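LOG
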Amino acid sequence: MQLETIVDRLDDELRTEDYADLDASANGLQVGPDTGDVDHVAFAVDAALETIEAAAGTGADLLVTHHGLSWGGFERITGRTYDRIEALLENDLGLYVSHLPLDGDQELGNAAGVGDVLALEDREPFGSHGPEFIGQRGRVVDPLTIDELESTLASELDTGDQPIQTLAFGPEEIEHVAIVTGSGVDWLGEAIEAGADVLVTGEGKQQVYHEAREAGIHVVLAGHYATETFGVRALQDRVDTWGLETTFLEVPTGL
């Protein structure tokens, strides 16, 4: 399949252009020619040297990641940035990135994947970011305790053998769940306003402890990497249907 065709399909599917003015990440094709044939696509959370070299080792023509290389552009291509770009070019490997579009997609996105694990119903977009959303909220069918919710996530997330951290300040029974994956604690206030019993995200900040305790809401910190494997895996499933060979590269950070 032509690279241009794959890029156009992914951009359309993820509404990449709608996030162009909202995201520091240069979403879409970050490294690669305008044209070319693609037979094998690798998927990973991070565009690090380890995943680039692993993708090249599988014989992939294109690497699709959630976290890319360009965040507001390049001032200098030196050091680690040079090493990563050099590895891409030497292996004739393209790089396609989807950051906030892949957080916010209500079917394929990271928050949607966490929602699937928790079997949420009555789902709605959550985590407003300008005119768009980067998360999801919903209702569990049967109320859970915070221990049960944590156990469900731990059984399904690749946490790199690290424990899930929980700020257990909410109600005894959890019904309404808000999700913003990765570094999503800045949306705690929105979760409180929405009447959520718990905010599920990846990593925390110091002030969230007191904010959550005073508001009486649980916060689950399940890992930045662990909560953001869902989107790239969903994209892999979608690209599988296009008749291309695909590989997922597991490189958990435990963070």
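LOG (cont.) second protein
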Amino acid sequence: MNAIPEALNALPLIGILFQFLGYVAANVTFMSQTTVAVAVPVALAALCGAVCERSGVVNIGLEGIMLTAAFVGWLAGVFAVGMLGHGDPLPVFGITPPLLIGLAAAIGIGMLVSLLHAWLSISARVDQIIGGTIINIGAVGITGYLYSLVANQSLNGAGSFKALAVPKEVADFPLIGWLLNAVLAQGPIGILTIFLVIFLQIMLFRSRWGLRTRAAGEHPRAAETVGIDVIRLRYFNVVMAGALAALAGAWLSMEHGNRFDANMTAGRGFIGLAAMIVGRWTPLGAFGAALLFASATALSASLTISPPSGDLGNLTNQVPGEFWEALPYIITIVVLAGLIGRSIAPAADGVPYERESAT
């Protein structure tokens, strides 16, 4: 029975590929769960970008929104613990009052920063790329400075949201158990992300709000002539989408861990923009692209924790660890390069809209 696999393993190139597929199959539970978890902040950033750009506003400031929300959410949790104590966590997700206060603070500051971007882009009609870049640079500087003021102090954080415990019967279900485990074995923000992807996909393409949003991003003047308040709609969408990027930041400091590090977003906002483009400005497509990029991180983690044996192990041992860390960014560049000229943004994306005078 083992003659065929052994023969395939002996082939130079096909053998390595066959060993790799066997390694993935053996570690599919860990890799799939890690892929979904790592994809959460990227997908949320991509959803934020998709809603904004479908409205006609380019949001390069995703990285800054995420970083600000991560810092404010974590710090608000620290203050809440100081005033209220940790409290008794709920049996589901380990939710405590300080965690909820930190999450609310993260979402609130994310929407405020998005309001600033909306004002710069819509009312002040500043170049949207420059406006978003200013937000990114400002977020790195401000959060880095404020964190340096408290970094040496012994702070008692609010803890972190816990992943959902998946019953063994579900995880061991034939054929799809690994998939059910990957989806369900997440914290509240991770599971909410999956529902948000489906919800926004339906809303953007099957609702009145979605039709108006797409009209504002494709032909705002025509949308205005049929009674759509383009400026108000853009403000609403940019600010509300900021809550999605804020959730991504909260995931980093309140679900993935219980800490804040300077510049901890590490480019995830920009990868989210790439996922949005690869996904052709659709929530489902963006989530699929986020999973693709996250799978490289999951593979790197799996190779570190459970190294393969045989020829495949010898090959991976010769690859520098820095390569695996850079792999998600390499895949992002390669995929984007292959889509140049084939992924078309909304026609009015990034174009400031000015109402015609009544005279």
